[in-house]
Each structure stands twice: as structure tokens, then as C-alpha cells.
Amino acid sequence: MASPVRLLAFGDVHGTQYLNLLRASLRNIPPEGPHAILLAGDIIDRGDVGGMEVVLREVVSRFRDAPIVSVFGNDEYHEVEDHLTKNFGYVIWLNDSVTVLRIGDTTVGIVGSRGSLDRLTYWQSKNMPQLETVYRRRVAILRRLLEEVSRVSEITVLLTHYAPTYQTIRGEPEKIYPYMGCRRLEEVIREAKPDLAIHAHAHNAVVTEATVGSTRVYNVSVPARRGATYIVVSPRPRLVRPQRGQA
Questions:
Q1: How many CB atoms lie within 10 A of CB 184?
Q2: Mean pLDDT value across the chain
Q3: pLDDT (tens digit, 9 = 90+) per residue, 76-102?
Q4: Bridge partners of 232?
Q5: What confidence category does residue 243 fall into, taking pLDDT thresholds of 50, 70 and 90?
Q6: Is residue 198 scored above 80 in pLDDT?
Q7: Contact assessment for residue 156 and residue 149, using Cβ atoms and an 8 Å cutoff
């Protein structure tokens, strides 16, 4: 039987801005530590790639053997993606893509993406209007990736920067919800049934956990959580369909 998996997840450190909150919370992680570390974007601030080394040093020094999986946030500008992937090659970078980790006797499939927004921000509308098409198509891409990885994984995780539901951004002004997340992904989550959906981006959220369908959703924004989030997840029983010829 597959064993529970321990995950450490966080986003929105913004370089040194919330580094002290992150550092203090890492001291309280149970001694056995996480099996894997998930970064939900905005680890750096406004494209300043120097912040990545500072933040990663904190987690690598404590949890040397844990693989690190990361997505890009809106502050990991498109222009610095290549720099980050080349200079931090020990991080598994996901950008509308998948990785499968073998943790003990458990297979963990992670689908990673910046995520989608229901409405472009003013800056995006003015400077990158093509994102409207990107976000619309991304919903379908994430659905397909979740369905594919669920076939080979005991635990499936959706890791995004933007929120895949409005439930875990409550506390932010309601009028900006469409600029912070994508409610269309709720349908994807309900149908694809990942075990976890993890995101950041909503610094001021007062609701940081919710359930969509059978999926537990976590907002792991450091300023919202006042630190990193430690999650223990057990594989759910999967429906085994009888092969042809069986009763």
C-alpha cells in the first residue's frame, strides 16, 4: 500500500520581502522534514533573479535531500525564465508541464503552471493582450495533463501561482477576484479530481484552505500563511476497472 507523502509548499516570498517569515516557519517543520518542496511562484520580486539564490539557500540548507519543484509567478517575468532554469538546474521547473516523483513506494504526479486569470490586469491588457488566448487555452491544457498524470500516480497535485478557485482568495477585495484567479479551473478540478491543488498570489487571503469537489485546495502564500505550509497527504483508493472478461 502506498505511503503518505510530506510536502512543504510556499509562494510569494518576493526575495527578501517575506524571507524572515519563511525562515522562522522553517524552524517549526517536524524533524522528519518534507519528502518534496513545492514553490508556487513569486519567489523573487519584480524579476530580480538574485532573490532566488537567497530563498533557495534557506530550504536547501535544511532539507538537502528533498527535490524542489517550482512554477513561475507573475514576478518571475517571462524575460528571466531562461536565466532561472539554467542557473538553478537542480530545481524542477514546470511551465504547463508535468513531473512524476517516486517517493518511497508512492508515485506523485505534479502538474505545474502559472495558472490562468478570468480577466487580464490593466498592464497585461495594454502590454500582453495575447495572454487572454493563453489563459483560455491553458484551462484545457491543465485538464489534459491532470487526466494523463492521474493514470500513473497514486497522488496527483495541481501546482499553480494564480488561484484555481475564488474560495481561497477571500479576504482580498472582491472586485479584484477575476485578476487573481480562474473559476473555470474549478470545473477542471472537480472532473480531474487531483488530490491537492496548491497556489499562491493572494497575500491578503483570510481563507487559505477549501475543498473543491473531492480536492483539497491550499493557498500557500507566505504573507497570508505567515510562513510555509506543511502538508501530509495520503493516497486515496483508486477505482480499479475490471478487465474485459472479468465479472
A1: 17
A2: 95
A3: 999 999 999 999 999 999 999 999 999
A4: 6
A5: very low
A6: yes
A7: yes
Give the 3-state secondary structure of the chain.
CCCCEEEEEEECCCCCCCHHHHHHHHCCCCCCCCCEEEECCCCCECCECHHHHHHHHHHHHHCCCCCEEEECCCCCCHHHHHHHHHHCCCEEEECCEEEEEEECCEEEEEEEECCCCCCCCHHHHHHCCCHHHHHHHHHHHHHHHHHHHHCCCCEEEEEECCECCCHHHECECHHHHHHCECCHHHHHHHHHCCCEEEECCCCCCCCCEEEECCEEEEECEHHHHCCCEEEEECCCCCCCCCCCCCC
- 40-64: average pLDDT: 97
